[in-house]
Structure formats: C-alpha cells, structure tokens
Design goal:
30% of the residues lie in helices and 23% in strands. By secondary structure, it is α/β, with parallel strands linked by helices. The chain has a domain of 315 residues: Alpha-Beta Barrel (TIM Barrel). The strands form three sheets. Strands 1, 2, 3, 4, 5, 16, 17, 18 and 19 form a nine-stranded mixed beta sheet that branches. Bound molecules: dihydropyrimidine-2,4(1H,3H)-dione and zinc ion (2 copies). One zinc ion (ZN) binds next to loops.
Length: 469
C-alpha cells in the first residue's frame, strides 16, 4: 500500500496536544515529526487548522441484533458506515448466546453477520445460560477467540435476566482469566411488577416506560453487581449508566480502590424524561433502557465524566425505526403504539457521539480535548483490551485517524445520517465540531460527505485482557 502523510495537523491524544506530521505505512503510524519530507508514492493530506484524533472506539453497539421480538435495523455494513461518518473506526458489538445453545454458536453467528463491516469490529458476548459448558466456553473465548468481555443482565426477567448466583459464577470465571463482566444493572423483577401494574391500570403511553424503571432500581442493581464483583475478584463495567444513585455506587467502589468502571451515553447527557411527553407517539423514539432521567441526573453524569467516576462515553446504538419500513414491523417502534411495554427498547446514536461530546463536553462542560479523546477512544480501548493498537496515535498503532474541525457549527439532521434508522434523537440539535476526514488503517474511508470505504474492509480485532485502564 502507498504511504500516507498527514501534514500540519494538531494531534490530540489522551495525553498530548501538539502540531506535527504523521507518516503512515502499511496501515500503521510509522513516524510522527515536524516537516517529514514527502517521498515517492506518498499521498499527502493537509490537516492545517484541524485536530487529528485517534479513531473513535465505541464499545457498545447492537448491529443486526435480535432483541426479544424485535431486530435492530442496521446491518454491519450500514451501521459501521454510519460509525465511520461519525469518526468511529472500531466498534465492540454484542454477540449473543441463544438460550439452550452454546456461546460458541452465538459467536459463530455474530462472525457471519459481521463480515460486511466497514470499520474494525470486536465482540462482547451476552451470556444467558450460565451452565458449566458456558463457563468453560468463557475461558476459551478469552484465551483463544479474543472475546474477553461478557454482558449479563439483571433486567428483563424471562428474556435476558440472570439471577445473582449465575452472575456471581460468571464473574469468578471472568476475573480468574483476564476477562471482564459488563452488567446491565436494573432490578428486573421489581420493574416487571411496576410495568404489569401500569398496563393493568391502562397507563400505556410511552412516558410509563420511564415511570416504571425508577433510578432507585438502577442504583440498587448497580450496588449489588459491584458487591458481587468485589467478592468474585473481577473487574466490572457498568453499561449505559443513567442514574445518580448508580453513579454513587460506582464512585464509592472506586474510592475503595475496586476495579469498578462505568460508561454513560450521549442521550443521558443531553436529553431528559420530558421527551416522553412528545405528541403523536413521538415519545417512543426515546424509549431506551435505562430511560432518560431528570436534569439533576444529567448534571451528576457530567460531574462523573469530569472526576473519572465515569470513564467512557459509548452509544448503545440499538436502532429500531420509528415507522414501519420495508424490512418490517418487527423492527419498528409501532409495535408498542397501544402498550409502552411492547416498544422495542433502544435508540440510534453511533454517528453523532463525537460531535456531541466534543460540543457538550469540551465547549460547554469544561472537559479538555485530551479528556474528550480519553472518554471516546483511549479508555474504552484500554479497558477492552484493544490498546495500544487502537485508541491512540503513536508509532506502531493502527492508523485510524480522524481529521476534525473544532470550529465548524452544524445542525444534526436524521435525514443526513447514514444508519438505516429513520430518525435521530438529536434532530435540530446544533453542535460545533465536525468530522471532515476518516482513515481506517491508513485508507481514507470518509472525505466530507463522500464515502470511500467498502463493505467487508473492516477486520475482526482479537482483544487482549480487559479491565486495565
Ligand atoms: N440494553 C442494552 O444495552 N441495549 C439495548 C437494550 C438494553 O436493555
Ligand atoms: Zn442493557
Ligand atoms: Zn446496549
């Protein structure tokens, strides 16, 4: 492959901020320096006036995923293309055990679906049946398959939930083998009571999704998962944390020196539960789990990002269309028009993470550009065994690079996005900061509005041990 020279950019990593050129050879950063001479067969890209960031690492997406009676609408091809336009070049997506089947079967199925990926992808494994075979498979996946993190749910009884004993057993195996448990922490059985009571009373509007999933029950389950992980001696990663009570549990654990980690998502940082009152069933667009909360929770999350009690911002990209589309009802929010409990839980976001967090974090909430990179690329890469190949700009790292205009103001429009989904949570939201050019292992895949990548060019990334940041 020809060499690539990116000149005059302002390189921002989690630790550094300086002007230099970057020479890329064979898909990796070969040299960083001032005034690197242009040799033969070098394609030169001028990054004057732009930030040069490591490609974003989004460790929470659901592409082409069966969830209860629903299925997310992005294939790996469409979802990763949307990610690329948003400056994200590595995804860690969720493979899924089907009840009664092995983890390996679920991983094989995920690999088949992931063949169309346009950016690099890795897999977490969702574990539903914690059998002796599954526990043995967990070890094999960590040691031999590069799959070193496992998601278990304390929510969705009868569908995805595991009990505390199963969670604890899985934690012990992960902890002893360099793996990490990701937990969806809400008290599923109590929430189920609240849902059934609401539906029986005829309280079926979208807003009851939020009212039946109280923040207290997220706090309770987060505290419980942390205590189980402490006993099991395993690192823990709390996914999609939305509630101040849950954050308090993580903070308390981190203050005691425990390897407890947590992510939040852009929607919890910018939107509130008022969205559920939107007319014409529009509130259904915001039905994701956990639900949107109040402004007070939002402020707690921003504080957590500043103090490192929250370490990662990922998207939980889980796209279901609002309206029924050619690919069918099973993929649309319309399933729950008469009953909020039937609205597929999930929302899109893979394309808008970087500009939103740059604008909201760096411009409005006092995060440094380094912290922005740390939250969106470096720490997720470190925690999930991808660093230093991913998540930074350094000699030897993959040349996944984003040229980012920190000054360009623009308006987010769903119709201009690249996911197959038919809406964005952030319609009309004005941001400053825009992705201009994206390189995947040295190849330009996005140039302004132009798509230069192709399906299948994304590689599967085998991950190392987790939980080290
Ligand atoms: N949890 C997720 O992580 N994604 C979608 C739905 C859910 O409950
Ligand atoms: Zn979840
Ligand atoms: Zn998710």
């Amino acid at each position: 492959m020809d060499s690539v020279l990116i000149r005059n950019g302002r390189i921002v990593t989690a630790t550094d901020d300086y002007r230099a050129d970057i020479l890329v050879e064979d898909g990796r950063v070969r040299m960083i320096g001032r005034d690197i001479p242009v040799g033969g067969n070098v394609s030169v890209h001028d990054a004057s006036g732009l930030l040069v960031l490591p490609g974003g690492v989004d460790v929470h997406t659901h592409l082409d995923w069966d969830f209860g009676n629903s299925r997310t609408v992005d294939t790996f091809g469409t979802g990763t293309r949307a990610a690329a336009f948003g400056g994200t070049t590595t995804l860690v997506d969720f493979a899924n055990q089907t009840r009664g089947q092995s983890l390996r079967a679920g991983l094989d199925d995920w690999h088949r679906r992931a063949e169309s990926a346009c950016v690099d992808v890795a897999a977490h494994m969702i574990v539903l049946d914690v059998t002796a075979e599954a526990l043995a498979d967990m070890q094999a996946l960590i040691k031999r398959e590069g799959v070193s993190s496992f998601k278990l749910f304390t929510a969705y009884p009868g569908v995805l939930m595991v009990d505390d004993a199963a969670l604890f057993k899985a934690m012990r195996v992960a902890g002893a083998n360099g793996g990490m448990i990701c937990v969806h922490a809400e008290n599923g059985p109590v929430i189920q009571v609240l849902i059934e009571e609401a539906v029986a009373r005829g309280q079926t509007d979208a807003k009851y999704h939020a009212l039946t999933r109280p923040s207290l029950m997220e706090g309770e389950a987060t505290h419980r998962a942390i205590r189980l992980a402490e006993l099991a001696h395993t690192p823990l990663y709390v996914v999609h944390l939305s509630a101040a009570e849950a954050l308090a549990a993580v903070t308390e654990a981190r203050d005691r020196g425990l390897p407890a980690h947590a992510e939040t998502c852009p929607h919890y940082l910018f939107l509130t539960e008022e969205a559920y009152d939107r007319p014409d069933f529009e509130g259904a667009k915001y039905v994701m789990t956990p639900p949107l909360r109040t402004r007070a929770h939002q402020e707690a999350l921003w504080r957590g990002l500043r103090t490192d009690d929250l370490q990662v911002v990922s998207t939980d990209h889980c796209p279901f269309c609002f309206n029924e589309q050619p690919w069918g009802m099973r993929s649309s929010k319309q399933q729950g028009r008469r009953d909020f409990s039937k609205i597929p839980n999930g929302a899109p976001g893979v394309e808008t993470r970087l500009p939103l967090i740059f604008d909201g974090g760096v411009r409005q909430h006092g995060l440094s550009p380094n912290r922005f990179v740390e939250l969106t690329a470096t720490t997720p890469a470190k925690l999930f065994g991808l660093f230093p190949r991913k998540g930074t700009i350094a000699v030897g790292s993959d040349a996944d690079l984003v040229l980012f205009d920190a000054e360009e103001a623009w308006t987010i429009r769903g119709a201009e996005g690249h996911s197959r989904v038919d809406y964005t949570l952030f319609e009309g939201h004005r941001v400053t900061g825009r992705v201009k050019k994206v390189f995947l292992r040295g190849q330009v895949i996005v140039d302004g509005a132009q798509w230069l990548g192709k399906e299948g060019m994304g590689e599967f990334v085998r991950r190392g041990e987790c939980g080290k940041a």
